[in-house]
């Protein structure tokens, strides 16, 4: 139905920088942006707030289906309350990884993700954007970095926000989450055959954005100003 609206799918592990890259690519192209991880984080947060356990499939599916969420100018609102900082906490990340392993939750969030596909285009980041949600994406990127580098970045981010953190614990959490996201039966985290690999361990944000814009131009033949 929306197949004429181009999608750039950017998948990869936690803290790989895919959110930052995806948002900047969307801005450069004037495209919409979907942070699909936020939907899983919001489901975990909404569950916690209403006393629903992170493994209660039926209740979680119901919650996910009726999430009262709005994305406005980079901020996230749950039931009209801004939760942008709260959804990014490690607690919500761990909860997101748990609820995301449940097929009923993934199915409940599917239509909501498809609804982001609006003209002139969409940049979507997550784990299964290219494999499940937007298999016809014009460009699929698998964006990654070593676990050590990702833990360092997360550590720096938290320090900058004045949130205390322990690098070893962050690395352990990331590895645990990578393992859970990669091992799950449904929509596991993995590089698809038709996805281009972008390893950002040694490169900065601007180079990563440039790489995606150039590949999009190649893939779509679009006249894109890549700066
Ligand atoms: O990208 P993120 O760290 O915000 O994602 C949080 C969790 O949600 C992550 O552990 C895996 C899950 N997730 C998913 O399963 N599928 C997606 N498309 C996006 C996120």
Describe what this molecule looks like in 3D:
The protein has 227 residues and is α/β, with parallel strands linked by helices. It has a single domain, classed as 3-Layer(aba) Sandwich (Rossmann fold). The protein has ten helices and eight strands. The strands form two sheets. A five-stranded parallel beta sheet has the order 2-6-1-7-8. A three-stranded antiparallel beta sheet has the order 3-4-5, with helices on one face. Helix 1 packs across helix 10, helix 2 packs across helix 3 and helix 8 (147-160) packs across helix 9 (167-183). The longest helix is centred in the last third of the chain and has 17 residues, at 167-183. Mean pLDDT is 92; it is low at 223-227. The structure holds 2'-deoxycytidine-5'-monophosphate. 2'-deoxycytidine-5'-monophosphate is lined by residues 14, 36-37, 40-41, 93, 96-97, 100, 126-128, 177, 181.
Low-pLDDT stretches:
223-227
Radius of gyration: 17 Å
The computed structural class is: alpha/beta
Query: How many β-strand runs?
Result: 8
Strand order of the largest sheet: 2-6-1-7-8
How far is the first residue's CA from the last residue's CA?
A: 32 Å
The CATH H-level superfamily is: P-loop containing nucleotide triphosphate hydrolases
Q: Which helices and strands occur, and which strands form pairs?
A:
Blueprint: E1 7-11, H1 18-29, E2 32-35, H2 36-49, H3 57-65, E3 69-72, E4 75-78, E5 81-82, H4 84-87, H5 90-99, H6 103-114, E6 122-126, H7 129-133, E7 139-144, H8 147-160, H9 167-183, E8 196-199, H10 205-220
Parallel strand pairs: 1-6, 1-7, 2-6, 7-8
Antiparallel strand pairs: 3-4, 4-5
Helix pairs in contact: 1-10, 2-3, 2-5, 3-6, 8-9
